[in-house]
Write a structure and sequence with these properties.
This protein is an alpha+beta fold. It is built from five helices and four strands, in the order H-H-E-E-E-H-H-E-H. The radius of gyration is 20 Å and the shape is globular.
Length: about 170
């Protein structure tokens, strides 16, 4: 890649998937099978989080060890060619991750990061996610109202509408 012109390098880098990656799909599948409902890639939140569990006020980022520099992971190596480019690229990625986590926490979100290498043991990942969500889950238990006027708590996330408003039959 070090012999490529910047325009050619940019084209190649543009082909790398930023969402709907295999690790992300695996985490989504695990959460869904466990009964959690979520939304994806919310553009109105800092960093366009991979998974948003609104009911639990929790964000899940699924990070690739190479791109996001998982400390101590053997996959987080630096290519031997064009080392300066890669150091700058990785530093930007890590700085952006830190900035987005801070911004989300300031907005009141809990932020959980799942690393690609952790997915070799999916049961452990799911157990950790469930532990992260458990305190919130305990507060959101269903309690039937004493009087008939109070609404029931939300059991699943409300459907979010995107795009133009539809006309309703009336």
């Amino acid at each position: 890649m070090d012999t490529l012109a910047p325009e050619e390098r940019s084209k190649l880098m543009g082909r790398i998937r930023g969402k709907n990656t295999r690790p992300e799909m695996l985490v989504r599948s695990m959460l869904h099978r466990a009964g959690y409902r979520f939304s994806l890639h919310r553009a109105n939140l800092p960093g366009k989080p991979d998974i948003v569990l609104r009911k639990y006020k929790t964000i899940v980022f699924v990070h690739g060890c190479f791109w996001h520099r998982h400390k101590g992971c053997k996959v987080a190596t630096t290519p031997k060619s064009n080392v300066e480019f890669w150091k700058e690229k990785f530093a930007r990625n890590v700085a952006n991750d830190r900035k987005h986590r801070r911004a989300l926490r300031r907005l009141g979100w809990k932020v959980v990061t799942v690393w690609e290498c952790e997915l070799r043991q999916p049961d452990k990942v799911l157990a950790r996610l469930a532990r992260e969500l458990a305190p919130e889950q305990a507060r959101n238990t269903i309690r039937y109202p004493a009087s008939g006027g109070a609404p029931l708590p939300m059991a699943a996330e409300q459907r979010t509408r995107y795009g133009a408003k539809r006309k309703t039959d009336g």
